[in-house]
Amino acid sequence: MGKKMKDTVVVGFALFAMFFGAGNLIFPPYLGVISGQNWLTSFSGFVLADVGLALLAILAATKFNGDVNKMFSRAGNKLNIILGSAIVICIGPLLAIPRTAATTFEMGIQPIFGNFNTIIFSIIFFAVTLVLTIKPSKVVDIVGSFLTPALLVALAILIIKGIMSPLGNINPQPAIDNLFSEGVAQGYQTMDTLGAVVFATVIILSITNKGYTTEKEKVSMSLKSGLVAAVGLCLVYGGLCYLGATVSEMYGKDVNQTALIVSITEGLLGSTGKVILALIVSLACLTTSIGLTSAAGQYFSGLTKGKLKYEHIVIGICVFSAVVSNLGVSNIIKYSAPILSMVYPATVTLIILALFGEKISNDNVFKAATYMALFISILTVIDSMSVKIPAIHLLPLDSLGFNWIVPVLIAGIIGNFIPSGSKEALEYSKKLG
Predict the structure, then answer these.
(1) Residue 423: inside a domain, yes or no?
(2) What is the spatial distance between Cα 105 and Cα 88, in angstroms, rounded to a whole number?
(3) Has residue 408 been placed in a domain?
(4) Residue 424, Cβ neighbours under 10 Å: how many?
(5) Helices (H), strands (E): how many in the chain?
(6) pLDDT tens digits, 34-84
(7) Reduced to 3 states, what is the DSSP secondary structure of residue 383?
(8) What's the rounded Cα separation, in Å, for the pair 155 and 145?
(9) Transmembrane ranges (predicted)?
(10) Is 220 inside any structural domain?
(11) CA 117 to CA 322: how far, in whole Å?
């Protein structure tokens, strides 16, 4: 294997492992259970909202050398900083990083060791994360060369066994309606698109250290590595979703998501399954925790222009995440859903606009589209909680979970006809064009 191919595989494996964390393991089997025979429909929505958007985010961020602030800058400095910080906090110490430890405990440690102390475990988990994160340039090699191959082997054992010896019959009737939009919602919950925005910093640092320094080389390596990760994720998601479908006659839509994958694994592999699941969960969550912690540390260090040291930020993230992780997976997921529903549309809007930024000379396109995405998503979240807003369901694509797309397109078109008076936009367009 040549150097370039080896580097592509290592970086691609690292991306796969950083993406494949707590949510990626527990959401696909649940989709299989509630979808039954129609599991491919919800799986398609999940892959679109997870793998598809994450790959776009990696490509967009690579164009800006992994600098989130530059990528979002044309939406305005205030929104840029607010949205960028919100993304990093969500995929950092507030939601995603604590969830990795909580999931590892509930699915990997508790089934084997019973009443193991959660506080002690969280301290151990984040101590390991800290040790493997403190040197950012080594993160990708550690994850891609050693941890991911072990994770893939463990997942392959589980999925192949489930395909060869299904635990039950697939339910011909789905448990819910709107399977595609449910898949999209679960794809949001993985937080991979948000993670991809900041993972790019870690990936580009590794690519540069491997000798790929020109923009063309970085984009090419990021694209190829992203495709390696995307193929791996699709295969694993499909396998896990199918495993869930095979027990769709045994469980309903109210099944606990962490308990479901524990039950499937034990049913397929017996008592040995607990050990294999513990290995899968520990590796999946640890690699994601490492990637997210490193990315968040680099983001806030860059945002403060080095006033906050990377090492100090990483230590703070690990300490805070250790505390939050003791809330448990269910509580973290419950609190994260409305936050992610508000952040995602605006983030996806800016990612897509950033990909075509050289074609857009007016900054008001970015501003109008992003603010509209935030507005619609906030109304949608309010409607889902207590105050009903019937008009929000009249928007096109509402049943698919994309009611914000058409309003965003209209807002962007209107913004294009509002003079921006921004010399930076014209200079940016000339530079990239």
Answers:
(1) yes
(2) 24
(3) yes
(4) 11
(5) 20, 0
(6) 999 999 999 999 999 888 888 888 888 888 877 777 888 888 888 888 888
(7) helix
(8) 17
(9) 9-27, 39-60, 81-100, 112-134, 146-167, 187-207, 227-245, 275-300, 312-333, 339-356, 368-389, 401-418
(10) yes
(11) 13
